Amino acid sequence: MKKPIIATASLAGCFGCHMSFLDIDERILDLVELVHWGKSPINDIKTFEQDCDIALIEGGCCNDEHIHTLRDFRKHCRILVAVGECAIMGGLPAMRNNIPIQECLEEAYLNSPSTAQANPEQILPNDAELPALLDKVYPCHEIVKMDYFLPGCPPRADLIYGALTALVTGQEAKLPYEVIKFD
Amino acid sequence: MSEHIAAISDIAAKYDNDPNRLLDILIDVQAQERCVTDDVTRQLAQQVGLSWADIHQTVSFYHFLSETPRGEYTIYLNNGPVAIMQGYEEVAAAFSEAAGCSIDSVTEDGRIGLFVTADIGMGDQEIAALINRVVFTCLTPEKARALVKDMQEGLSVQDMARKHREYGDGNNSLPAIHSMVRNNIQKAGPVCLGPYEVGVALRKCATQSPEDILSQIKASKLRGRGGAGFPTAMKWEFCAKAQGPERCVVANADEGEPGTFKDRVLLTERAELLFEGMAICAYAVGATTGSLYLRGEYTYLREYLEQVLEQMRADNLLGKDIAGKAGFDFDIRVQLGAGSYVCGEESALLESAEGKRGEPRNRPPFPAQSGYRAMPTVIDNVETLASAAQIIDKGADWFSNMGTEESTGTKVLSISGDCDRPGIYEVEFGITIGELLDMAGARDPQAVQVGGPSGHCLNADARDTMISFEGCSSAGAIIIIGKQHDLLAIIDNFMEFFTDESCGSCGPCRSGTWMLRNTLRRIRQGQGTREDLTSMRQLSEVMKKTTKCGLGHTAPHPILNTMDNFPHLYEALIPEQSDIRVFDLEASIKAANAAVGRTSASKETREKEEEQL
Q: Which ranges of B417-572 does DSSP label H, i.e. alpha helix?
């Protein structure tokens, strides 16, 4: 049987979910036996060379590039998994959702202790190459259909590994309580 | 400045610097200063012996209290469901344009503040507004402009009201009320609006034992009129048996459910009957303290109610040795609210009556065990207490012969919306929706909202549905929604209402109301999915099971009811299924691009354009 191809992406996240993924430690060797790696920051492959079976998405969407990337993943991947709080609910970045974007930018680039002195020309980053910020931070499922959700901030390595191997092998995931409790 | 401090000090002193009267103090400060500033909060904290945070959180809780000035004239325009059906937008725009300030702001000269508030109990005479606590009804854009002109010229609110519209019928024209509010009694039934002579019931009561009174209420099978339908006699018995040196009777006149206005009319025309009912309850349970919690929106009735109380004291129907019965001591005080829907919930009401934020309490203990200021307390709807007085006068059999097996007596209904005869109808329980629609002269009805947003949204074709505890139970608000309206826009108004009114104390309600509203909005914008419908049902179940009080339990009703009774409305809005959700990328980057001063389109749009080149 052809090995399934997996891909990963980090959108508006902190890469913590990817770090947690790497906490599967030596089991990554077992995983390599089971799957091929497609586009992912882990191997630095930046384009879809072929369609993938399973993609893990970390983070929600806070700029137009995230929307673009997520839609691209949906087109090229059979199963999308929202990994972690930000992908599922918007997470910490969504705390800005109740603050007008103008205020956020001013606080970050004009008024904060580290920028107040350092930005004498009072510039808000506006280069055309930069992604455009969205009005709000959106969870992934509001942009594309998501198939599975792995909760946690970050989800434990055992949860990511358990879910992934279950998807790959087609067996029911065995996820003991300790793996999905958060307190 | 010192004069100012003295003025605040006088207000607090008027209420003996009693922290339990904090709400009264804050209402008076707001009326005088047009806000409760941080300085005042700190001064009051010292004076009444509470922390600054205690007072601050109370000020921030109520609609009619504010930390920033709300203008010499404060307009609270009602944006309830009937108002939005009958032209609220145009009237709001007229006020805003004429005054030169947007909604939720005050004119630059500080003269006029324009704010909105949820339902002020005038559903039968919309569009309505409160201006400095005076009620203005039947507003149109022209009238709104005329009122703004009057305010700019400095007319007193009373003069404005007189100029605007003649006094209403019945007691509304009494000097103590002098209001343009109309009763709109379309059908007076035999109990609450029936023949009645002041003092008869109470004098009959005083000749019997408390046990006799309880057994008559029990025999009448009277149930609570606030919607839940708890057997009144059982509640009274619990209180009578509870341990405590003193007991208390509270009348809940905080009818905040949009579309309800029956208590307004009962308080205007049958205040004595209500107070007699309270005294009879007090006699039955052995209470000495009474309180009428009057919603802030009905402040215009306060002076009149105080007068009625004074007269009843003079007639020995309140006070010491009532009706000549030695030891029958009971008196009633009017407690004003300051604008909060959740305060209609009995335990939140008690918190509020004690001068605090209106957050529902944990139960047990129930109010009958430990209620107002820890006293065992009976807290009943205005209509329940008025009915109790008539039962003592005219007999349990007379009462229980009306209505149905499980729902005896009559119900006072507030009917509003798309009909020829909006107003008050006192009818026997068991009446059907069809009969009501015909009686009120419904115009091409699409839906009937029974019991306000927290009640039931029925399809107008469900004509056989019965108004009763065994059928469709409610506090009596009937909003008729005609076919010309976008029903989901009205449901959106309901969800916005719950989002605003959630006290925020428990998570499932605080977040759940918000999530339901946002999902509904996404669906209405054509961005919904079938999963959204499932997730709204799941979330609703969680809210029903896990929220602390009735607000959270019932807040999902508008959505659940319309998904059940009007599924086609949702079906029509859900786009063809695709894994890529509808999302307007260009619109969502507009604000940020404007903030940083660039005009470029999103990367995706640019790439598309390049491809086309």
A: 433-440, 487-501, 507-524, 530-546, 550-554, 557-565, 567-571
Q: Are strands B105-106 and B73-78 parallel, antiparallel or unpaired?
A: unpaired
Domains of chain B: 2-61 (no CATH), 73-165 (3.40.30.10), 187-400 (3.40.50.11540), 410-485 (3.10.20.600), 488-571 (1.20.1440.230)
* Residue B15 near residue B24, CB atoms below 8 Å: yes
What is the predicted pLDDT for the residue at B409?
97
**E strand or H helix that includes residue B90:** helix B88-99
Chain B hits for A71, CB-CB cut-off 8 Å, are 580, 604
* Chain B residues within 8 Å of chain A (Cβ atoms): 522, 527, 529, 531, 579-581, 583, 585, 587-593, 595-598, 600, 602-604
> ipTM of this model?
0.84
Question: What pLDDT, in 10s, does the model give residues B341-359?
Answer: 899 899 999 999 999 999 9
Is the separation of the CB atoms in B392 and B204 below 8 Å?
yes
Residue B515 C-alpha, separation from nearest chain A C-alpha, in angstroms: 11
Task: Report residues of chain A scoring pLDDT below 70.
Answer: 1, 183
Q: What is the DSSP letter of B190?
A: S
Q: What is the pLDDT of residues A151-166, one digit of tens each?
A: 999 999 999 999 999 9
The ranges assigned to domains in chain A are 5-96+135-180
Looking at the complex, does the CB of residue A157 fall below 8 Å from at least one CB of chain B?
Answer: no
| C-beta separation of A136 from B575 below 8 A | no
Question: The domain A5-96+135-180 is classified under which CATH number: 3.40.190.10, 1.20.1250.20, 3.90.76.10, 3.40.50.700?
Answer: 3.40.50.700
